Amino acid sequence: MTYLRPARQDTGEQAPQGARHQAVPRALSGGAVMALALGIGTGAGPSLARALGLAPSSTAARLIPAVLVSLVALTLVRAAVRHDGHRVARLGFGGPAASLRALLVGIAVPGTAACLVFGLGTAAGLLRWSTPDPGTLARFLVTNTAVALLLEALPEETTLRGYTWTSLRGSFSGPLSALGTTAVFLLVPGASTAVQATTARLLGAEGAPVGIVPEGRPPADHLILLTVFGLTLVAARTALPDAPLCTAIGTHLTVLTVNRVALQGDSRDAGWSAVDQAAAAPLLVPLYLSVAAAAFVVLGRMAARISRG
To answer: What is the largest CA-CA distance in the chain?
Structure first.
């Protein structure tokens, strides 16, 4: 599998032999940074938007928490990487051309997998679609891309598939690093709700309920989906040798967009959605994620063979 490539290909440099005992605390700190950033951003953002007189549903009001999350996460990760004596590029960033190629691969692979699986689901009668509204859909795609990139895709990939993965991969095998990174990923949402509630209350607002999964969702179903998603993101992170973190960012952004249009489009006013979903329809999401993960594994093997000459 892609996860089994040497650590040097995944991280760009090998951790010192004596640094193994530091890998787990550093990996956990990546998750802590994301939880802190997400909690502060979503806790303070609405209060700041109200202070500026912005309507809660406006794009500007939604962008404020997103900007805060990225600002806090990227600042803290940059400081952590420099404290470790490394460059930020070690996390998986690259030059402009390589980053663009990796981003496009990250968009194309899950996008194609989703079209294939949802198309088969539609043909099988599991989904029925509304008539698309091109203008509304285009506006949704623009605003959702901006918010999702800054609130989730960029900060989560930088902290988790960037700092956490790199910290583990320099000392542990690929499979262990993948499982460890995904385990930290599962801890972030619950920890962030505690930070969010505390931040909101300090600002005189009402905090959201604290819990390991969003309110109203079955915990087991949600955690299974997050596990599949997390492993898919690691597969994306390890698929390409150049700017690999951008592949994970593109994948994260694409999956969020596809799911919000296809399964939540009506409630999010996306201009298009699956209006009639059979009970088995939610299973299509982990299915297309698994297809995307398999494709990334194949790409990783091809890249490894090419690099060996």
So the answer is: 61
